[in-house]
Amino acid sequence: MGLRRSDRFLAGLEEADRVVFVSHVHPDPDGLGSMLGLAHLVESKLEIPTVLTQDGPISRAENKAMVDVLHLDLVPVEQLEWHGHDAVVMVDSQPKTGRHSIDDAIDLYAVIDHHDTPGELKGIPFIDIRPSLGATCTLVTKYLAEQDVDIPEKVATALLYGIDTEVTGYPREATPADDEAQAYLFPLADKDLLAQIKNARLPHSHFDCLLQALQTSFIYDRLILTWVDDLPQPEQAAEVADFMVRFEHVDWAVCGGIHKGVLFLSARTNLAHAGAGELLRSVVGKLGRAGGHDRRAGGSIKLASTKPSAIDDLQATLRKRLLKKLKIDDVRGQRLVPLREMLQNLQS
Ligand SMILES: [Mn+2]
């Protein structure tokens, strides 16, 4: 019988003194859950110490709640003291995709991911990338099941939430493997903690941002495009796009917003096989970076200037490219909420 992938993954780690897990910036539940699950696998099977890192701030309310409620122990990646015999495992992302702040010179032992966006993988001993899967946590759950490792409540809860957040849209970006993993984890997870995470309390800024988003949304045929001046946190662009794509008259929602001198973009579609990641990547082009999945994509552009006129120009460029890619005529957009209604609301 041939070696299973989880056997090969573990075999390559036997000589390591420590296994360091890294993921992408703006850590999300799939990345956090995958790190936690693999760390549990390594500790159970090899008894080698592990470190979970955090790349940049965790900003979305639910993600912060996940870290608090599950007491995740994360070391800021910039504070980590690297040792010679560290084995470094990257999850839910690929090297040199502009999504990490770790030094590109650090050698990786493994990349375990499910993104369409290709990274630089040359020389990496262990690679398991399955873009068909809804979540990296699904792949990690398979490893744990294959190795017959008991999954503690905390780990099961994190993995289940990681998968849950990746397969919520419609049409679902899930395979039977994602459903199997969820069914496997469900009895093991703490459902109360899960509910606490999903219903995390939201800051005032969240509602300010939503109001602005409603007031600045324009419809172009099957696309709704939203610009937000001040994103309270980068991931709110995705939250806005998730909200807007449910509008019954559109197939695509794109939201762009600015946070600390960077324009963050998020795209969502309700069309199957839309290649959203690749579409956004070609819209952004050399202006910045972008990528993602079939129906969900994200990107960012460092602003050369934060002058309103420069931002207007950039938005116009992106809008033109987007409309062209989606084969929509570049005509004046229609406001989601007409100005007249906004004024009436203010007066009532
Ligand atoms: Mn993921």
Written overview of the protein:
It is a single chain. With 348 residues, this protein is an alpha/beta fold. It folds into two domains: 194 residues, Alpha-Beta Complex (inorganic pyrophosphatase (n-terminal core)); 137 residues, Diaminopimelate Epimerase, Chain A, domain 1 (Roll). It is built from twelve helices and 13 strands. The chain has a seven-stranded mixed β-sheet, sandwiched between helices. It has a six-stranded parallel β-sheet with strand order 3-2-1-4-5-6, with helices on one face. A hairpin with a 2-residue loop joins β7 and β8. The longest helix has 18 residues. It is globular. The mean pLDDT is 96. The site of manganese (II) ion has 6 residues, from loops.
Fold blueprint:
Layout: H1 5-11, E1 18-22, H2 29-46, E2 50-54, H3 61-69, E3 75-76, E4 86-91, E5 110-113, E6 126-129, H4 136-146, H5 153-166, H6 176-185, H7 191-198, H8 204-215, E7 217-220, E8 223-230, H9 236-244, E9 252-259, E10 262-269, H10 276-284, E11 289-292, E12 296-302, H11 308-325, E13 334-335, H12 339-347
Parallel strand pairs: 1-2, 1-4, 2-3, 4-5, 5-6, 8-9
Antiparallel strand pairs: 7-8, 7-13, 9-10, 10-12, 11-12
Helix pairs in contact: 2-4, 2-5, 3-7, 4-5, 4-6, 5-6, 10-11
